[in-house]
Specification:
- The protein has helices at residues 6-19, 23-30, 52-68, 78-84, 104-107, 127-140, 154-165, 173-179, 181-189, 195-212, 218-222, and strands spanning 92-96, 115-119, 144-150, 227-233, 240-244.
- By secondary structure, it is of the alpha/beta class.
- It has two domains: 1-42, no CATH class; 45-244, Carbonic anhydrase (Beta-carbonic Anhydrase, Chain A, 3-Layer(aba) Sandwich), CATH 3.40.1050.
- The longest helix is centred in the C-terminal third of the chain and has 18 residues, at 195-212.
- A five-stranded mixed beta sheet has the order 2-1-3-4-5, sandwiched between helices.
């Protein structure tokens, strides 16, 4: 997961494209394919956002495209694969659920090498997960962490029922229940109209708050080099709503 050298490779590749020295790039710029047929011009790679606010804006712009269906599918081609093959420099970390309907790269319309993505049931965290979240900000200056919970989370629903009925889940599923129990306790105190959805929101906030206060991440947050955002994804609409921590 080396992050060194990416800007230099981006510059070399971009320069080659501009000069027309890469045949496929030159053909794309001329509007022709190798067979002479018209070909759509690929969008130039966007500069990496280097502040929490810029990274957050990039993600939310991508989510707006996802909601509308007007997708860019940026940086998902062989040239991008070649560019990031030897080095990476993602601008965001997303900790989301394992749910098959919540793929961060799609939800935010991002490309190869843009995000570090971690997925656990109910965004449950522990030392290994927290260390993985820390990797980008602490080693490569990644300016944004997003804790992304979602509507109708099966992991949270199962944990809620387990705790409510005092019926432990089998195997290591019980570890998820224990990890999200603080969110359950807050939900019991104020359940709202839909206790499971309330617990989902509580789990997002608790996890984001815990990461924001982490001994290694807190100094980065304090000096404005990092933001930790808690967000909720609607399966119905595709929209991401921010609950806490949006950079200003």
């Amino acid at each position: 997961m080396d992050t060194a050298g990416l800007p230099a490779r981006r510059t070399v590749l971009a320069g080659a494209l501009a000069a027309g020295t890469l045949t496929t790039g030159a053909l794309a710029l001329s509007g022709c394919s190798a067979a002479g047929a018209p070909k759509a011009t690929a969008a130039a790679p966007q500069p990496r956002p280097d502040t929490p606010r810029a990274a957050f804006a990039r993600l939310m712009e991508g989510n707006a495209r996802w909601v509308s269906g007007n997708l860019d599918h940026p940086d998902r081609d062989p040239e991008r694969r070649e560019l990031v093959a030897e080095a990476q420099n993602p601008y965001g970390v997303v900790l989301s659920c394992i749910d098959s309907r919540v793929a961060p790269e799609l939800v935010f319309d991002t490309g190869l090498g843009d995000l570090y993505v971690l997925r656990t049931g109910g965004q449950a965290i522990g030392p290994v997960v927290t260390g993985s979240v820390e990797y980008g900000p602490m080693t490569g200056g990644t300016p944004l962490i997003v804790v992304l919970g979602h509507q109708r989370c099966g992991a949270i629903e199962a944990a809620y029922k387990s705790l409510k009925d005092d019926a432990p889940l089998p195997g290591n599923l019980q570890a998820i229940v224990k990890a999200v129990e603080p969110a359950y306790r807050l939900t019991v105190a104020n359940p709202g109209a839909d206790p499971v959805d309330t617990m989902i929101h509580q789990q997002i906030r608790i996890t984001a708050d815990e990461l924001r206060a982490n001994a290694d991440l807190a100094p980065l947050v304090k000096k404005g080099a990092l933001a930790v955002v808690g967000a909720y994804y609607s399966l119905d609409t595709g929209k991401v709503d921010v609950l806490t921590g949006a950079p200003v």
